[in-house]
Amino acid sequence: MYHVAAHHCVWYGECGNSPVPGKKYNCNYTGPPKPLPPDGYLLLTELCPGYDYGNKSLCCNVDQLRTLKGSLQLPLQFLSRCPACFYNLMNLFCELTCSPHQSQFMNVTNITGKDVMAVQYYIGQTFSNAMYNACKDVQAPSSNVKALSLLCGKTAEACNATNWIQFMFNTENKQTPFPIDPKFTDVPLAGYTPMNNNTYACNESLEDGSGPCSCQDCAKSCGPKPVPPLLPPPWTILGIDAMAVIMWISYMAFLLIFFGVLLGVWCYRKRAITSEYGPILDSNNPLSLNSDDPDQVNASCCETLGERFENGLRMLFSSWGSFCVRHPFLILFCCLVLVGASAGGLAYMRITTDPVELWSSPKSQARQEKDYFDKHFGPFFRTVQLIITTPLELNETYNPYFGGSFPFGSVLNKELLHQVLDLQLEIEGLVASYNQESVTLKDICLAPLAPYNDNCTILSVLNYFQNSHATLDHLMGDEFFIWADYHDHFLYCVSAPASLNDTTMLHDPCLGTFGGPVFPWLALGGYDDTNYNNATALVITFPINNYLNDTVRLEKARAWENEFIKFMKNFSNPNLTIAFSAERSIEDEINRESNSDISTVVLSYGIMFIYISLALGHIHSFRRVLVDSKISLGIAGILIVLSSVACSLGIFSYCGVPLTLIVIEVIPFLVLAVGVDNIFIIVQTYQRDERMPQEELHQQIGRILGDIAPSLFLSSFSETVAFFLGALTSMPAVRTFSMFAGLAVFIDFLLQISCFVSLLGLDAKRQERNRLDICCCVTLPEGQEIKTDGFLFQFFKKVFAPFILTEWVRPVIVMFVGMLSFSIAVVNKVEIGLDQKLSMPDDSYVLQYFKNMSEYLHTGAPVYFVVEEGLNYSSPEGQNAVCGGVGCNNNSLVQQVYTASLISNYTSIASTPSSWLDDYFDWVKPQSTCCRYYNTTGAFCNASVVNSSCVSCRPMTPSGKKRPEGEDFMHFLPMFLSDNPNLKCGKGGHAAYAAAVDLYPNNTGVGATYFMTYHTILKESPDYVEALKMARILAKNISESMDHKVFAYSVFYVFYEQYLTIMNDTILNLCVSLAAIFVVTTVLLGFELWAGVLVSITIAMILVNMFGVMWLWDISLNAVSLVNLVMSCGISVEFCSHIVRAFTVSVKNNRVERRRIMISFGLKNNFGTLVFSGITLTKFGGILILALSKSQIFQVFYFRMYLAIVLLGAAHGLIFLPVLLSYIGPSVNKAKVFAAKKSWSGTERERLLNY
Fold first, then answer.
1. How far apart are CA 1046 and CA 1030, in angstroms?
2. What is the DSSP string of 957-1009?
3. How many CB atoms lie under 10 A from the CB of residue 243?
4. Membrane-spanning regions, if any (predicted)?
5. Are 115 and 16 in contact (CB under 8 A)?
6. What is the pTM of this model?
7. Which of 161, 532, 600, 1218 has the most CB atoms within 10 Å of its CB?
8. DSSP label at 843?
9. What is the pLDDT of residue 782?
10. What gap in Å lies between CA 1248 and CA 1230, rounded to an integer?
11. What is the mean pLDDT of residues 937-948?
């Protein structure tokens, strides 16, 4: 021990060289303090303003002050953003280095010659705790971590006052020239009085006018911690879901009323009371709830108008049908020309597979914000990622030489890390080929420090070891003990990923070879809390440059990604389980899925085609099978359906409208449903019609077309209008489908009433001449044949219709109301979104990647808060509205995002944003060595350059210490954005912020900028939607407080924005479609308002029941299912409109008889059998095949929904609607009855009136 008298120095000046590079030992000196030479005054004022008085007699000289300044550069750059914190820290070091009272609290413990080799420093526990408390919350904006994580040798959470000061005084940090042993005590110890100077709390102002630290850097400066609002409790009644209770009560009330009315009517019938309200259950009674006797009153004006409209349509279509049969080849030629011309547009067909184009409207908010981001900062980089686990059990507990115990997961076993590094290096060495050019990773990767450092960004724990096997194997020790190895380096790097020199005995850098930090939450997975050593997965990410308008470079990137995918598919290592994905993976797999499902779709359509071709024929005997069959006509009908699809695709392709896979997959199914139904109606109506005396074939077909074409026109036109109105939506996939579907359905109708009618005429002539189908040159000998009705016709006429209209079966309507009540109760429980796993084939490698991503990843996507151009960053007002340091507004952008991160479970904002503005202010401070320039040229001089002509950017004056404003701000900002971080300046902005600031030409001002943070981990669609919603709310609040436009942007927003409004879009689309169907149905039924209402009610019930099926069958609501719902609206018209029209044109006197006639066919149009055979059976076989598809999206959204559409449509069209019409169907149109009696009187058809 070397004791000295009180109030004397223990050292003065610098002597011998220390083992620490660039450092020297202080010279032993026990005399009184010496006056500081004048050339050190400015330096003393800068570092230790408390000593700037009197003759400045100190225990240090100018060299020691310079050494002190150099040693404190990193703490200054990271802690000076909080003035109180930095003041206390400087107090600690100034007292140590220069205090004239050194001997009171310092004890020299080792002197060699003139060199002081070691000292003890007695520090007050109160002082050390106060210093730590003032600094513990200070942020490092560029790293999104606490500054102490970079300055304490441990994570900020593990750092405390004692181990922080011990770390700063340890020679292992490469800044301290000799050991300094801190002794913490608040009372005199061993004859020494501890240094216990006054301190400032972080929320206090300093005497020099510096304000308190910001809330972001000082919890004491904040108000109460924000508390997220409580989630609204689920809506319940007596603890049961409210919707379920309400619908159960409603259903019970309906049953009570319904059966009460039935009972009342039954009582009246028993008393034989006959009145206007006679027994509706007596199917033989000509009266119902309202009088249907056409002779009771004269026809109303509306009925007369309806009859004339109906008659006009009949006459028009009769004439047209007759013309088509008389001039078949002219019609066929014209149709072929028009189809050929329209389908010629397929040469210009463009299929969109870009997910952004599919799911996001160019006018949507997310799309516009994406375009703005891409324009000012470049598109978000492409991602190639691996998630690596191991089946081996290699868990270990590491016990460092200096104490402690840390469990390490299997994936952090060194031998496994070597194998992973081999894989990573192999991937780096992949060479792809594009247009006979070689493409390597370095050609396309993100290299933030290029051209100074062209190393690719690789976010991997191996970058903690500089991607080197030798560094991974680096250890320090002797033959008995290992003092430090890769475990120690890993533990240090996960706490200080931006460090250039770890504090272990290895002294290896943590900073990645690309010049940036690798944050552990991006490179590791499956850990708990922040115990990264427990990780069960390694995550390796290769960010690849994306290109906005450079197709060649983009295709090079895609070519390399393809090579990567090939390599990974062939890679095998029994010790590693690897899930991987590239940016192009999802698009590739969707395309592969579409190609692999071609066979399934073809088989599905093939079955439907075969059924149609065979079912169209009405075979009277085995002898006439080849004559009565309609195979050629069926094939022609199918070709017409496909031609209508081709015309629709071609016409829109002429207009430059791109196709989507949804259009290609769904529209043929839809048009086939509509078209085949029409084909069956036309053909089978002709087959069951008897030609009247003196009536020629063209007149007969014309008459038939006059009877049925208005019904075909009704269904087709209402579907067309509904689809075209559905195109008003902003969702591209739905809009495109609606446009193509509407046109295809209408063209199909036009071709069927022209081309198909002409072909029917030709086929009828062939059949009358006994020529064989297909082989029409062969004639069958004449024979006596008896016409018989088909099985389906007989079944519907004699079994089905009487059965469902009997008085004890008709109450089946209550079952449909029950289904409706259930569906309404669960409609708000249908999940919104699209599980991305469903878009992949069952055997896709991407499925495993999605699974691992959900299971292991701990951080969500980056989110950027973009400040649009126009904000004046050179003014204090503009700076304070954005920054997060001292003097910034409490509601600034950075502060609001920081506050949101405190309640991340609610806001989905994971961390404090990286702020280029705050780092720029720290970088430009005159105390820092970061901002320098050559006084000869004015060019920027990096902190690592040793040159006497390099001078500080700003003077050490009160004004120089303030933030730069005006011209100063713009003068130094480009230097900051071009400065690479190094040992002497960790605040260089090139790597972190070069892309974050969009400077005006010639650096005349700051345009758009962004402040980046991360979302919390997002696993399911609702998580993504909620994150988007909360980010927008936060951006809106920031915009309002700044009075300047700020928006939040993340790469997934364009895909999930649709789910913010999809429920509203669904309601709007379906309501508009229903309204269109109602209007068209009402008009085309001859202004039958009540009939239009009943059709709309039935279709609405089918749609609501579809939601019930979606909930039961786990089908979520998204653009794909919305397309199917819009389609089901159209197909439902087919199930309902024909039957309702048949009812309205029937001339029977009561509803039951009119309904029975129309459902069973009678002697007119067998719409019941036609709906069943034309839609239900046709689709059923094809739908079942879809269940065999490898595509999950086919199985869920096509097989399940199509099956539900057909079954619900058939049930409502063939059971519910007939019963409903028998109860409350519209009264008979008296004008139509009168017209029918008048026109049929005296003809063969007069008997139809009394059938």
1. 14
2. STTTTSPP-HHHHHHHHHHHHHPPPBTTBTT--HHHHTTTEEEPGGG-SEEEE
3. 18
4. 245-268, 329-349, 598-619, 631-653, 659-683, 704-728, 740-762, 808-827, 1067-1087, 1094-1113, 1125-1147, 1167-1189, 1201-1224
5. yes
6. 0.81
7. 1218
8. T
9. 65
10. 16
11. 87
